[in-house]
Amino acid sequence: MSFKSKLTNSEKNLLNLTPRAKSIIIGLILSDAWLQKRGSWNSRIGFKQSINNFPYLWHVYNELAYLCSSFPLAAKAITRGKIFYSVFLQTRQLACLNEIFNLFYLTISDKNGKSQVIKTVKQELFFYMDYIVLAHWILGDGSKRAKGLVLCTDNFSLQEIVLLVNILIIKFDISPTIQREKNKFRIYINEKSLIKIKPFILPYFVDHFLYKIT
Question: Which of 24, 32, 58, 102 is least enclosed by beta carbons within 10 angstroms?
Fold first, then answer.
């Protein structure tokens, strides 16, 4: 596979998100990925995983490669004297990603009048939620719990988590609940609900993470 490292603005504007790519990205943003947008520049996606989870990142990369200018890159970090290896991908800055940026991010002013961008959950997410979104949300932030699973939502407020739960209830006719773990709130999907959604999310799973839903 070869890349054209630089595209003209006209070429970039020809790039659009397929429905599948859009759903994958939204699922990633709900979990481990992020969007960056500087001033009037277009948005780009960043996504990083532990080197142990490279099979999943490679799967995502193959879905979104047409938005990227290079292969995934490796990184090394030292935390508390231990070396950790990760791999990450980053897309080009593209106008087609601004829609998703606006879906998840708000610009607010702090008490000193300084602007900052925060990640949030908006009601409009309801219209984007589908089984591909849910699958990648679970792939990124889901963990097996008894015969069900837990979605880590530590970075969202309780109000946002309540909104997410209601979207899941209405969209998929399941019965997720909110569980408190220390000072954080997380979404629990019980065995009955997992059995119900499993046939619909399984086609979008990677073998590396099948244990989360089996």
Answer: 102
Q: State which H helix or E strand residue 25 sits in.
A: helix 19-30
> Which of 122, 48, 146, 39 has the alpha carbon at shortest distance from 90?
48
Spatial separation of the C-alpha atoms in residues 203 and 29, rounded to whole Å: 20
pLDDT digits (tens, 9 = 90+) for 86-124: 999 999 999 999 999 999 999 887 777 787 888 999 999
Interhelix angle 131-141/19-30, nearest 10 degrees: 30
Q: Are 75 and 43 in contact (CB under 8 A)?
A: no
Backbone angles phi, psi at 162, to 5 degrees: -60, -40
Question: Per the confidence metrics, is the pTM higher than 0.70?
Answer: yes
Give the 3-state secondary structure of 83-111.
EEEEEEEEECCEHHHHHHHHHHEEEEECC
CA Rg value for the chain: 18
Two structure tokens written together for 107: 């610009």
| Spatial contact of 206 and 56, defined as CB atoms under 8 Å apart | yes
Encoded tokens for 208: 């590396």
What domains, with CATH codes, occur in the chain? 9-119 (3.10.28.10), 124-204 (3.10.28.10)
